[in-house]
Design brief:
alpha/beta; two-stranded antiparallel sheet; 167 residues
Length: 167
């Protein structure tokens, strides 16, 4: 077996392992300490999420799946926000801020939009590189589910309802 084949096999095994982690319930790990810089210049930290079920979505204006799923994320936010649900859409570092602002304004995004201009937030959340990547955080600030790619929204809604019902 050549080194090239060994490396390819190792890469494939790692990909499968990451895939299994991404699509299975990720357990309950604390959301990483992060500061989200919002479009209005204010900031929010991971600690501010305590007491709410929060969807943290890493996205980019150049990502077709991200743009396509955004109306569903808006509908999810509008449906559950009165019950203590929140959403933070984190634009990737490579996304030009002017594109992000234009997208948020023209589509009237009702939730918090952050720009991760240094890439520090994406790095803290597991070195996010693939968009969309979505994390569901419970009221105690623990990541309970991770999606890479568009979530299955009916399944996501069931999870949100379950987490909102927890005390």
């Amino acid at each position: 077996m050549t080194v090239k084949h060994w490396v390819a096999g190792l890469a494939a095994a790692a990909f499968v392992a990451v895939g299994a982690f991404v699509y299975l319930d990720t357990g309950r790990s604390a959301a990483p300490p992060s500061t989200f810089v919002l479009l209005d210049g204010s900031s929010q930290t991971t600690a501010d999420m305590q007491g709410k079920v929060t969807l943290v979505n890493f996205w980019a204006t150049s990502c077709t799946t991200c743009v396509a799923e955004m109306p569903e994320i808006v509908a999810t936010y509008n449906k559950y926000q009165p019950q203590g649900f929140d959403t933070v859409a984190v634009a990737m570092a490579y996304d030009p801020p002017s594109y992000v602002v234009n997208f948020a304004e023209t589509r009237k995004l009702p939730f918090k939009v952050a720009i991760d201009n240094t890439g520090a937030v994406a790095k803290a959340w597991g070195d996010v590189r693939l968009t969309p990547s979505t994390f569901i955080v419970n009221k105690r600030g623990e990541i309970v589910k991770t999606y890479v790619g568009a979530p299955n929204f009916p399944e996501l809604h069931q999870l949100i309802e379950k987490l909102l019902a927890e005390t």
